[in-house]
Write a sequence for this structure.
């Protein structure tokens, strides 16, 4: 990658639309756009201004456009930047891109605009990664988590931890310079207390990854029960579409079926599974095994049963199995329209709700219960939540390195080894925000972005 190049790419989604936006960034971006623009002289215009005119290829008018100017350092990349708003014809887009390239620009690599913003100090690496998460957010909770990170939520936490450690690291490094005089500039007990405090913050951040992963990828909810309990009917009712095949024949669903819906601003992934029963059918048996596997992976289990046919002892026995799995669960009694009354033991159970899936009765109440049982209501917009697996691993590495520091103090290891362990912890913290980075790491991160961002 050459930072001196002027880059160009389509910034809006590909495909036919009313308008499209083509973005340029680099020292030559305004000059390149000006050579093809029939309108005001862009080279003499102020930053953050918009200009109407034509993009021309020689004497041929390609399109009427609006051109927005952003002069360094007041742009996304902190470079001179231009955004061309044209009509959303793929032909027009390609013609304008070809013209920009002909005048000296090159096509941008995936994520190169954001990478330049990071390299030019617009924000740190954690904030840059949040840009991709913000673009990919599909619901209120994932949007809030990404926006918090992009505004520096986790970066502020990491910066505060690093500053505290850097002070002690410098004191211990200073002791190395006076090793022959046997002086102590950094109190070992104070260092242990500091690490204890930092460890508490790290534990909070590391533990938040489970919630962050769910926010980013959706809460996995598995629907289990015996064949013909109405699992596929319930899935269709939750999704409000005919996603799963519904039949009176037991064992229709032989594999897992998944789809997503938004409840309370949170994405939930519902998984319909094969009916739980003993079977000699080899294919159905594989489906049952997959159902068992999905239960171990789920954040919430819904056990669906037919109120008109399933006995209370069987239901309570199944509930005990769910309790042993240690996961939140809901007992869902289906076909309540076919029974005159429901067992008192179930009505008094806080995990129980009854519905009539075919008639879509009680489905809204069930959705509310799903949201409550998922505990996603605990997530607040301002919370710092780790959603990135790379950050999670770096935090774990930091914690392990700090534990090494404490063990070193207790074992009275020499200052050079103690300083090395502190350097390790600072290194891992620096990986998160990009204070410590490599070209390979940056290429790997930004290659996952869309082109034009």
């Amino acid at each position: 990658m050459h930072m001196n190049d002027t880059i160009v790419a389509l910034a809006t989604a590909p495909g036919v639309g009313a308008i499209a936006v083509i973005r340029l960034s680099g020292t030559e971006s305004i000059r390149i756009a000006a050579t093809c623009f029939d309108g005001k002289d862009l080279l003499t215009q102020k930053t953050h201004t918009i200009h109407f005119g034509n993009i021309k290829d020689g004497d041929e008018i390609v399109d009427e456009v609006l051109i927005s100017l952003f002069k360094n350092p007041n742009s996304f990349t902190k470079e001179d930047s231009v955004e061309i708003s044209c009509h959303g014809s793929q032909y027009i887009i390609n013609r304008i891109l070809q013209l920009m390239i002909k005048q000296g620009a090159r096509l941008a690599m995936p994520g190169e605009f954001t990478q330049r913003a990071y390299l030019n100090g617009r924000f740190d690496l954690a904030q840059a990664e949040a840009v991709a998460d913000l673009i990919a957010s599909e619901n209120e909770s994932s949007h809030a988590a990404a926006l918090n990170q992009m505004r520096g939520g986790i970066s502020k936490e990491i910066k505060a931890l690093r500053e505290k450690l850097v002070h002690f690291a410098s004191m211990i490094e200073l002791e190395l310079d006076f090793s022959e005089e046997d002086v102590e500039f950094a109190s070992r007990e104070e260092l242990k207390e500091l690490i204890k405090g930092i460890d508490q913050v790290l534990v909070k951040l590391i533990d938040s990854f489970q919630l962050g992963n769910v926010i980013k990828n959706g809460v996995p909810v598995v629907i289990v029960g015996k064949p013909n309990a109405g699992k596929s009917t319930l899935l269709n009712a939750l999704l409000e579409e005919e996603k799963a095949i519904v039949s009176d024949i037991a064992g229709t669903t032989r594999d897992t079926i998944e789809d997503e819906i938004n409840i309370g601003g949170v994405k939930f992934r519902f998984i319909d599974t094969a009916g739980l029963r003993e079977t000699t059918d080899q294919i159905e048996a594989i489906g049952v095994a997959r159902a068992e596997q999905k239960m171990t992976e789920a954040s919430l289990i819904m056990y669906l049963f037919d109120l008109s046919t399933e006995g209370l002892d069987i239901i309570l026995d199944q509930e005990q199995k769910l309790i042993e799995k240690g996961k939140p669960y809901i007992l869902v009694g289906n076909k309540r329209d076919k029974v005159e009354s429901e067992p008192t033991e179930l009505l008094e159970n806080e995990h129980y709700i009854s519905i009539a899936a075919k008639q879509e009765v009680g489905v809204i109440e069930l959705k509310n219960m799903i949201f409550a049982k998922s505990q996603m209501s605990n997530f607040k917009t301002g919370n710092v939540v780790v959603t990135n697996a790379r950050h999670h691993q770096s935090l774990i590495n930091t914690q392990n390195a700090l534990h090494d520091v404490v063990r070193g103090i207790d074992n009275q290891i020499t200052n050079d080894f103690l300083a090395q362990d502190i350097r390790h912890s600072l290194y891992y913290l620096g990986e998160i925000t990009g204070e410590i980075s490599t070209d390979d790491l940056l290429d790997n991160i930004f290659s996952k972005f869309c082109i034009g961002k």
